[in-house]
Amino acid sequence: MAAFFRRLTEGALAAVLVAAASGCYSPGHGVDPPLNSIYFPVGMAVSPGATRLYVANSDFDLQYNAGSLQAYDLDRLRALAPHYCTSDADCGSSQHCDLAPTDQNAQAPSHWCVDSSGPWAGRPCGALGDKSPAHRVLEPGRCGHLDPIHPQDGGSPVVVASVGIGAFATDVLYIPRPADAQGKSQPGGRLFIPVRGDATLHYAEVDDDTKSQHTAFELECGQANNDGRCDDQHRVGDNPDQENTRGLRLPTEPFGIAATEDGQAIAVTHQTEGKVSLFVNDASSWGNGTTSFGTGPKLEFVVGNMPSRPIGIADVPEPQMVTVPDPSTGSAISYQPGFLVTYRDAAQIRLFRYYSDQYASSGEPNNPARPFIQQSGSIDVSANASSFDSRGIAIDASRRKACERRCDIKTGGGAAAFDCLQSCAGIPLGVYVANRTPSSLLVGQTRTNASATSSDDLPRFYRSVPLPFGPSRVIVGDVIGQSGVRERRVFVVCFDSRRIGIYNPDTDTIEKWIETGRGPHAFAVDIQPPAPGVDPSLDTPGYAYGFVGHFTDSYIGMIDLDRQHPTYGQIIMTIGNPKAPRASK
Amino acid sequence: MSVASEQRAVPDWAAFGLVLAFAVGAVALGGCSQTPVTQPLRSLERSGAVSFVCVGPDGQGRDINDCPDYAAGANRLLALVTQTLRGEIAVVDLTAGNVVDVDPSTPGFSFLPVGSNPASIVSTPGGVATFVGVAEAGKQGIYALPSSCLGPPHRKSDGGYEQVRDLTSWPACKLPSAPGSMAILVDPPKDDDGNPAMPPREWASCGAPYTDGAGAVGQAVAATRSECAADLALETNPPGRRKLAVALPKLGEIDIIDAQQLLDRPPGSFGACPVERRIHPEVDLPASDIKQPLPPDLQKAGCTQPELNYGPPSQSYLTRPAGFAVSGKKLYVADEGAPVVHVFDVSDPCNASEQPPLLPESFDSPGRVVTTSRVAVSPLTTDNKRFAYAIDEMEGSVMIFDVSPGSADRTPIVRPGSPWLPFEAPDRLAFSSPARDITFALRDVPIPDPETGVAQIGEQCNPDPSIPADSVAAGYRTSSDLTRGASPRKLRGVFGFVMLASGQIAVIDEDDFDARCRRPVGANHSSTPDFRGCAGDPQSIDSYQTGSGSNATPTVSDEASCNVVERHRTRSANFVLEDSTTGVRAPALRSYPRLHTPQGSVPPEGVPPRLLGVDFGPSAPAQVFVGQTYMTRGDAKNPLDIDPATAENDSLVLPFNEPRAYAAKEDFTLTFQGPIMGDRNSGVLALTSPDFTDPGAFFCDRGVEDYDATKAYAKNTLGMSQNLDSFALHHADYVQLESAVPDGSDSYWKTAAAKECGGAANGHYNCVGAFGTPDVPTVARDLTIRAAYTDHLVVEPRGGVTMGTIRCCLPSEQKYTIRGGDQWVLVGSKSGFRHHMTTASDGRCVADCNPRRALLRGRAFEIVTQAQADKCKKKNAPSDCPMLGCVVDSVPVQPDNACVFSSLSARFAVYRGDAPSGRDMSFGWSTTGGFSPLVADLTSQTSSVLPLSMVFVPQIGQLAVADGAAEGLALVSLDSVAVSHLYY
Q1: Who's near B157: CB < 8 A, 6+ residues apart?
Q2: Residue A550: beta bridge partners?
Q3: Alpha carbon distance B504, B951 (integer Å)
Q4: Rounded to a whole number, what is the distance in Å from the CA of A161 to chain B's nearest CA?
Q5: Residue B15's closest chain A neighbor by CA?
Q6: Which residues of B touch A448 (CB under 8 A)?
Q7: What's the start-to-end Cα distance of chain A, in Å?
Q8: Contact B8 A364 (CB under 8 A)
Q9: DSSP assignment, residue A346?
Q10: How far is A336 from chain B (nearest CA, A)?
């Protein structure tokens, strides 16, 4: 016992010293992580073309010397997932619809397509096999776990790439590459991962599966010459001499991340320092996407003087009217992109605006542009008894964007289009916050006012929806509605109580509680993207799934998000073998 | 990129990995649960709505008015509470005072299972059954719960037990979409045969032949069941067939369902609901403009308010029926999809007819489409008024409609008195937190007539000194020791209750039977309100007291204001008066104001500037509470000296017109050239124009007054005709730049842009010399605002440097503030800087002529005597002479002088001292005794409160609140206006 405590003390001391001195990530020492395993997943992102699911693993208990970033083949995952059916006609030629009680389905018809012959004939879970009732308590879902490297169907792995990253990643964000100055499309996009271990922002070049040109790699962050880990070039924020003119280094504990719609400005919260950092990822940071990859993002500014423990951050979608000239003046309305930030220690939402410093640089090449981010406003949250301890935040611009699409279609440009866009700008944005005092989903919206863009972008919360304990993240996404069309929903992840609520903004109700395994945290929606030119509000997607990363037991759950199915809001497949934290073993 | 990171060595990762998980755990995953959450064990979880039934000892329903059963104690009042997370109905026995466990064989508390997401619940008035609307995805419907099965399974005559309560226990039916609100309507019997001997007749369903209602007892299918029987024919108060009105928001309809037919469904079945009538509410908006009638104090000639007239939006709406309120034969339905509150005549529920709707509007935002989530209707008041409250869904405020018999106006009432309460929209009750539910209560604590022994409800307190002191109406008066009679917490009358999301329940005065006795003793016969807000008192009453001199006895509470109790306003929690027992409860100064200089408390040389109170009028001398002493000009005992030549103390006076204008406690600072706003960090000086831009600043909303606005004020308000330009240049607001000059080692100095101010060699040195530091700034940092727009300012240097030098020395983003020019700026710790500026259509900041904002003032101009002004004509005139705008012949200044500062909560004059006042010289004072609203606080036990619904239970005289967080079901007593019981 004494040895144990001595080891404990030494280990804790070392941990604190390392954390205090220079962060925790040290490639080259300790045990290499199994890059293909899921290990304390914290972030997920779906590629714009919905062919890849990116997962950031945090190595939370530091069993290994790094975390990992993985790319999963979504087409394979969807093919392996059970398929709902109402008759045999819905299934392939070698399958039939499991509608009647049989010994093979344990007298519980699944309404899934099952093999008609072979070793898995009539078995709803096929090669995955059924979970025992005991396992289903901790790991909901009928079927056994999918091995991501050696799938039970004998096919190719579902993990198609992985690289090592620093320990204690917190999230992952995909940013598509903007068109160049001539409006020409360029290949590729980028993933950004805040890493607490070494207080950096990692980034990796990836493909953009919506473009005609494709990159030749899955994940590229210099790992080829760095033992499979992202190299220093792809860890930014720690080089004040090279990255900015202000001598800035990224503060400790980067946590939340968000980017402007054009991907030029990336803001990161710092959960223990009361700061928000700005990275600029503008056109100069990208190469050509095939032979060069540019300088990468740069840390440009750190803003403080705010309540401690900022957590959630979301970018405020820009009204389209600011991107076109006002016919009356000939120039676009002055507008600075913004971010909304939540706090654990303050019942507030604060608005930060990104300034490209164009006033200092435009027309005066001698004047150095010094991009910065500043607090622009704040709003007290009063929709709860105390309203402290806000976590995730999400913003829904779907109504405004639908209006703006109609402007393009109906007006054909010019002054009429601007007027139309101006009226659309007055449509409020939906704002959703996970709050813990008490556990609730705060529902609010921005307000129309007399500003140039019709809103000051600060939300007002008018509703508080009760939640079970431990809400942490909020994600806005779409599901397939009962009529088969795309419908907007808000997903609120409740870490402590193992549930994800599906909130319907139209009916103001939690229409479904998803029962998950232990520690649901990361969440991403995988719904078939609309075909080019199709109005999303009229789109009838072919599939809709959610992916939840179980932080505690290190696996991923795949959720049916098609309301036409009786399995709507249920985990239908699990990926990876659950592993309880070592402390709980 | 980082070489340093390569050198970070961490020994033996695996060894302390587990430890680190704990060591760093405190800062781990901000979005996850890193701190163990201790949750108390509670039986109720995520309560959503509540309904009440009365049951007899036999377990059968009883008329709700038979509970509480004070006589025999046999009947029990049960609260049925939806458990939204578990899909259950909790049963709380209010008579026994406990939560009922319906399955004692299972550990923990078991409740009555219904479908997921129970959204609404209603019970029949006779207590026979309760209906629960559930919104479970794909299984939306209604469950019918007979009262005979609300408890644990009974033992049957054969010795066995009834089945365990589960989903198959209840008749249920499926709806095409999720149900919203529900209400029980009564289809009255028909008694048209002219034969008194024959009982009234009912029809079994809409359109069916009429039959003998009494004969229906025991005939229904559900009435004959051996378990969970339910016979609505037994309910006779009120007589008639029970109909269930169910809102289907998504479909925009209200379905009428016969309650007994639903109960007759086989338990466990889930067929389609037997809908008898489908009502499709219409959005019947007027074709012409809708105009809210304005009270006189919001009408001002020459000031056209754009919000006065506005027509209905042209778009079409999809109605989404929300909250219900039944009042007599009318059903009011809030609408979350359209700007109407529907009104139905439901005297015949089978043929409900829609009447012209109420029209929710927003006085402050006339273009906004106002939808509503909840509605409530008051009982009739003593003046035969009836009011409807409706919650503005998106704003969380509460609109009040006059739905009295004969009322023609269908828009929200615009209340008088808004100039004294400019921060609350004139047409709605606004709170610090969104309103979640509303209800009304009529209650009384009647005094029996000494002659007849009859206690009559609704008797009003009468303060007329001439009526007999032993009359009932006089008996309601406040006693001299304030312990009896009319008082803030004595709720006699009709009151509104607004439940806030923050866990408070605010009390609204609608018809306080004691209102006439809550006022000052002094009478004002004039129709013009005095500084206490009193007006129009009868000529026959000189003062509200009996006797005289030392024998005088007030017939009223002798509070400081006549507006202590106001219809449609929040109720005060305290007497508004100063009393040795109650303490300071009227607006008062904690002490006299004190002058501070930037150097501390060192007074300036010579006579300093003076801050002094001003008379309220020719016959109303200056008077104010200082601590608990009432100081009055001319009073022999406690004089208030307001003459700058003789006054020992600085002072000001506090008007009592509107007690609600005062925060409970507040600190004020009156600063010369004081900041009108806090620091901002995002100002940018344009390179090629004199524009100072900060799009997020909203300069007009912050009250910025530029050169033109200042000039117009001098001309129109102060009556100046000379030196206007000079006055405006000195008094217009200015920007003070607060950023530091870049450090000498900053790479900026190496750029070409820095060459203009010295470059790498001398730039930093030169610039610090010219602009100083943020702590010791020079005047070079000040920029006069020539024109102010909501997102930018047009500026010019105030201190003799060029714009180019400023841009060079202070590049990039600017920290800055805006200060008033040569004037005194008043800022309250809670009220902030008050102003009356607004944004014109071109974005320019202009003065708002709206009378509602007339008393919003935050700037005071110094007053000088003619003798002081004459010095300006001499050769060595003081440098601030161009500033002079308020010259008076004599002091103290007259009450109606334009330079008197008169606002909602302060009235004073600032007299110039011998020397010009300096920047940041300030007077400071504190007020106390401000308004405290009467609220019932649900958070007294825990802050984990999320109230979702509230009903008034007249049988027990309490409010019942279903809490979505920790409190389960809370009962609020209206005797104490506090939580009386918590069931969780």
Answers
A1: none
A2: A520, A555
A3: 14
A4: 23
A5: A11
A6: 365, 367-368
A7: 18
A8: no
A9: S
A10: 8
Sign, Cα dihedral of A105, A107, A110, A116: positive
CA dist., res. B844 & res. B851, Å (int): 20
Q: What angle do CA B286, B287, B289 make, to 5 degrees?
A: 80
Mean confidence (pLDDT) of chain B: 90
The amino acid present at B430, given as its one-letter code, is A
CA distance A350 to A390: 12
Classify residue B43 by its DSSP letter. Answer: S
Beta-carbon separation of B137 and A24 below 8 A: no
Mutate which of B6, B371, B504, B682 to test chain A, going by most A C-beta atoms within 10 A?
A: B682
Q: Mean pLDDT over residues B909-916, rounded?
A: 90
Question: In a mutagenesis test of the A interface, which of B7, B8, B815 is the best target, namely the one with the most A β-carbons within 10 Å?
Answer: B8
Min mean pLDDT across A50-54, A407-411, A435-439, B221-225 is at A407-411
**DSSP letter at B360?**
-
Q: What's the one-letter identity of residue A142?
A: R
Of B50, B87, B47, the residue nearest B167 (C-alpha): B87
Secondary structure letter of residue B577 according to DSSP:
S
Contact (Cβ atoms closer than 8 angstroms) between residue B612 and residue B644? yes
The residue with greater pLDDT, B202 or A366, is B202
Dump pLDDT digits (tens) for B336-362: 999 999 999 999 999 999 999 999 999
Sign of CA dihedral B515, B520, B525, B531: negative
Tens digit of pLDDT for each residue in A303-351? 998 999 999 999 999 999 998 888 888 888 888 899 999 999 999 999 9
Per the listing, tokens 């064989």 go with B105
Residues of B in contact with A382 (CB under 8 A): 432-434, 501-502
Cis peptide, bond prior to residue B892, ω within 30 of zero? yes
Residue A208 neighbours by CB under 8 Å, 6+ apart: A47, A48, A49, A176, A177, A187, A188, A189, A214, A215
Distance from CA of B336 to the nearest CA of A (A): 10
Instruction: For B244-301, write each residue's pLDDT tens digit.
Output: 999 999 999 999 999 999 999 999 999 999 999 999 999 988 877 778 899 999 998 8
What are the tokens at B91? 């049963």
Vertex B530, ends B524 and B531: CA angle to 5°? Answer: 135
Terminal alpha carbon distance of chain B:
58
User: Inter-chain contact A472–B33, Cβ cutoff 8 Å?
Assistant: yes
Which H or E run contains B764? helix B759-771
- Interchain CB distance below 8 Å, B684 and A386: no
Candidates B858, B857, B862, B834; CA nearest to B918 is: B862
Tell me the per-residue pLDDT of A91-126, one tens digit each, with 9 for 90 and over.
999 999 999 999 999 999 999 999 999 999 999 999
Q: Which helix (H) or strand (E) holds A475?
A: strand A471-480
Distance from CA of B504 to the nearest CA of A (A): 8
What's the rounded Cα separation, in Å, for the pair A154 and B332?
64
- Give the Cβ contact number of residue A317 at 10 Å: 18
> CA-CA distance, A268 to A202, in Å (whole number)?
12
Which contacts of B478-485 are long-range, i.e. CB under 8 A and separated by 24 or more positions? Answer: B478/B517, B478/B518, B478/B554, B478/B556, B478/B557, B478/B575, B480/B553, B480/B554, B481/B581, B482/B557, B482/B575, B482/B579, B482/B581, B482/B582, B485/B461, B485/B514, B485/B517
pLDDT band at A428 (very low <50, low <70, confident <90, very high): very high
Mean pLDDT of B804-823: 92
Give the containing element (helix H, strand E) for B709.
helix B707-716
| Whether B935 contacts B507, CB under 8 Å | yes
- Write out the two tokens for B667: 């600190």
